[in-house]
Specification:
The protein is mainly alpha-helical. It has one domain. It is about 80% helix and about 5% strand. The chain has seven helices and two strands. A two-stranded antiparallel ribbon has the order 1-2. Helix 3 packs parallel to helix 6. The protein is elongated.
Length: about 170
C-alpha cells in the first residue's frame, strides 16, 4: 500500500476528484430531475467531499509512515489507521441523509434520497482510494435502480389513475 500512496500524483488526485464530481453529478441529476430534496449540488458535494477526505487520509498515512520509518522510538508509539477518516464519513453521512427523510402521518418520504446520499459517499470513498471500476459500476447500478424505481412509480400511478377514474364513472 505504501507504493500506492507514494505514487499519488497531483494528476491522479485531479482525476479522482473529477471522477467523484461526475459520479455524484450523474446521481444528483437524476434525483433533481424528479424534484427530490437532495439534488445535483448535494450529491456532487457528498461524493467529492468523501473523495477528498479519503485522499487526505491516504496522504496523511503516507506522511506518518515516512516520519515513523526514520525513528525507532516513534515506530513503537505511533500506529497508523488507514481508514479512520473514511469510517467517519460512513457514520457521519447518516446525519445528512436523516435530514432528507420526512415523516407525515402514515407516510414516509426521502428514504431513497437518504440511501442514495449514503451510496454517493461510499462511491466517493472508493474513488478516493482509486477503486475506479467499483465506483463506476456502483454509479451505473445506482442510476439504473433509480430509473427503474421512477418507471415503476410512473406505471403504478397510471394504473391507480385509471382505477380511480373507473370508480368515479361507475
Amino acid at each position: 500500500m505504501g507504493e500506492i500512496m507514494n505514487n499519488l500524483t497531483n494528476m491522479e488526485i485531479l482525476i479522482r476528484m473529477l471522477l467523484a464530481f461526475i459520479a455524484g453529478g450523474i446521481i444528483g441529476f437524476e434525483r433533481e430531475k424528479h424534484r427530490k430534496s437532495a439534488g445535483f449540488r448535494t450529491f456532487v458535494l457528498v461524493c467529492l467531499g468523501s473523495c477528498v477526505i479519503t485522499i487526505v487520509g491516504i496522504r496523511t498515512v503516507w506522511e506518518t509512515i515516512k516520519i515513523v520509518e526514520n525513528s525507532d522510538k516513534l515506530s513503537e508509539v505511533i500506529k497508523v489507521d488507514t481508514v479512520r477518516l473514511s469510517a467517519q464519513v460512513v457514520s457521519g453521512i447518516g446525519f445528512l441523509g436523516a435530514g432528507t427523510i420526512i415523516h407525515e402521518k402514515n407516510y414516509v418520504s426521502g428514504l431513497t434520497s437518504a440511501a442514495s446520499l449514503w451510496t454517493a459517499a461510499m462511491i466517493g470513498i472508493a474513488i478516493g482510494y482509486g477503486y475506479y471500476f467499483i465506483a463506476i459500476v456502483a454509479t451505473i447500478i445506482v442510476v439504473i435502480t433509480l430509473l427503474l424505481s421512477s418507471l415503476r412509480n410512473y406505471y403504478s400511478s397510471k394504473t391507480n389513475n385509471r382505477t380511480n377514474q373507473r370508480s368515479r364513472e361507475e
